[in-house]
Design goal:
By secondary structure, the chain is an all-alpha fold. It is built from 17 helices and 2 strands. The longest helix has 12 residues.
């Protein structure tokens, strides 16, 4: 998806650049990933395709974002914390233009970003906050951040936890988004057998728990507690019961991220109905191929 211009427009990256771990390409993937929150995938993809190429280049360039922030006279753009706590970026309800009260008359790239990204009023802060979080976490770019973490980590699991925490320093980058990105760049089965960040990192730790996974957990009576860590542990334990190599010899037997993605895909009614390949578009006659248990869980059958 990240490499397909037909799907993500000017946010698309070259596959060879991602697999080589080039920092600029990985940063573009990270910014694109951050868009996938609290909105249907199909809608997010339409937004990405509609962003002008000049804006996409700026929004996906850590160097450009940091340069614009440092040149700005606004005191809210000095550090990641200042941006998160003092900048009150929003949108004018009538004009949909980016506005703030801290520096009302100042034209800044954050206001432009919140307009072109067509999300929440504060969303224009996200790309620049990510750029700050990376640079403040031990390196000038994502490659140096990873190297810094690997030098400090005591184990592959510790490296995974540290990488997740570093990304979560950014505004609106919570564990779900951090795990989406980190699994993309470290999970070998998501990269066709190659991943730039898999060495030295426990990539099986990165599981994306979102609202559709929660729907599945509720349907089967998951008792909680509903913390990210508890739900992650449950999905990982579920993953240990599914030998993925039995379905495809090229897959690792244990890969909880793929098991979690299956839960997400199955429970995402809105995304399924928009997909022409999904059985939900073929009518109730095809439901007989599923077990009674699957039919009882299927959101498209209710």
């Amino acid at each position: 998806m990240y490499c397909d211009r037909a799907r993500v427009g000017s946010f698309a990256v070259r596959r060879d650049s991602v697999l080589a771990g080039q920092p600029a390409a990985l940063f573009r993937v990270l910014i694109t990933t951050a868009m996938f929150q609290r909105q249907r995938d199909a809608q997010v993809l339409r937004i990405l395709r509609g962003v002008p190429s000049s804006d996409a280049r700026r929004i996906c360039s850590q160097r450009s974002l940091l340069r614009l922030a440092r040149l700005s006279p606004c005191e809210c753009m000095r550090t990641s914390d200042a941006l998160k706590t003092h900048c009150d970026l929003s949108k004018d309800p009538s004009t949909k233009l980016g506005v703030c009260t801290q520096n009302r008359d100042l034209e800044c790239h954050l206001k432009r970003d919140t307009e072109v990204l067509r999300r929440y009023g504060y969303f224009g802060k996200v790309p620049t906050s990510i750029a700050f979080a990376v640079s403040e976490s031990g390196g000038r770019d994502l490659r140096e951040l990873r190297e810094h973490v690997l030098r400090q980590a005591t184990s592959p699991r510790d490296a995974a936890v540290r990488l997740e925490a570093a990304l979560c320093r950014a505004f609106r980058v919570e564990k779900k988004i951090a795990n989406m990105f980190l699994s993309v760049v470290s999970n070998p089965d998501l990269c066709g057998g190659e991943a730039p960040w898999s060495d030295g990192v426990d990539w099986s730790w990165f599981v994306v728990v979102d609202s559709n996974v929660d729907l599945f957990l509720k349907e089967i009576g998951f008792s909680g507690p509903w913390t990210y860590e508890t739900r992650r542990r449950f999905v990982r334990s579920l993953g240990r019961k599914v030998d993925l190599s039995a379905f495809d010899n090229d897959l690792r037997p244990f890969n909880p991220r793929l098991v979690q993605q299956a839960l997400y895909s199955f429970m995402s009614k809105s995304n399924r109905t928009l997909s022409q390949r999904d059985c939900s578009n073929e009518g109730a006659a095809v439901c007989g191929a599923c077990s009674r248990l699957l039919r009882s869980l299927c959101p498209c059958c209710k």
